Amino acid sequence: MTTRPRTTRLRKLSAGMGFAAAVALATALAPSASAAPADVTVSPSLAGNTITLKVSNNANKRIGCEIFGVKANTSPAASGVVFGYQTPEELGALISPGASKNVPMRVTAGTPPTLTGSTTIPDGTYDIYWGCATITLPPGSAREQFWGTNPPLTNMTPTAAPIRVSVPGAGPTAPAPESEAPARPTVPGFPNIDIPEQICAPWACYPLPRF
Which of 18, 112, 121, 173 has its CA 20 to 30 A from that of 34? Predict the structure, then answer.
């Protein structure tokens, strides 16, 4: 993938759903560079009604990401965003080279909507879109590199397809109830003595009939 100016390739979905300011100001001052699609990947994990995405950064720069989920088979527009994640605008929130970070999905809240609500995702099937970009400081000192789906990336070939998930996800499997063996009949007049299932001689055992 060849990098291009940041301003033409990331679509801001809403006022509360864009990359950090440092990324938004990035411009093209350095020659084009190539970025491998596998340098930045995401993988989901589900437990009940919570969704966590593991973002792995194998690039040589820090990255920030925007992630959002919409109902499956619907247009990925800002009005349809149900949940997501946005890297906070602080240096410590960026994902360092060679590191991975588990980011929780939160439902949209407020007006305009921001990704600050509960981590309890409503039941349903969703498509997750995501985009990550390298962060160079000061902004504009180098061409940034990008990974993810379209949207939020635009005017480029995406490096990944949307991820389909269903909520609630599979949680710990409940143990199967243990089957209880039928009670053996008791000896008449002796309620605390069970009749054995079989009687054995030195050479063989013979089952006893149930009464």
Answer: 18
